[in-house]
Specification:
Distance between the termini: 56 Å
Helix content: 25-40%
Number of domains: 1
Strand content: 5-15%
Number of strands: 2
Oligomer: single chain
Order of helices and strands: HEHHEH
Strand order of the largest sheet: 1-2
Number of helices: 4
Largest sheet: 2 strands, parallel
Radius of gyration: 20 Å
Amino acid sequence: MARVWDRFLTENDRLVIAGGNLRAPKGPGRKSALLLIDMQITAIGDDMPIHEQRDRYPGACGPQAHAAIPVQQRLLAAARATGMPVIYSKHVFHPYTGMAKAASGVFAAADPGSAPWGGVRGRARSPWRSAARGRAGGHRASS
């Protein structure tokens, strides 16, 4: 059965794929970590249809992001229970990049919306706990 990308493969690509995977399956390894990516106010937005919040959060995932929070809560609890490191990343435009919206606007370092959702600053200030008891939309900064 042809895959949509087959027409883009070179002959060399086809030979490599036909040869199969030479690496044995490995599993998670000994140095695993949980990585939470872009769980920040401007990326999550409100728990409402995306088209209704484009003026406030143009890059937000809305209800899809909010639906993922309970899953991430369980993953976060499991990771912490086992002592697994938890790494948070966030998307920020810094002025030194020269990007048009780096000085102000969505995802600018100075924009309060670029803060981690719920004030993520480590174990004591988990966004997941704040979301469970926060106001509608879950955007409540921890103190």
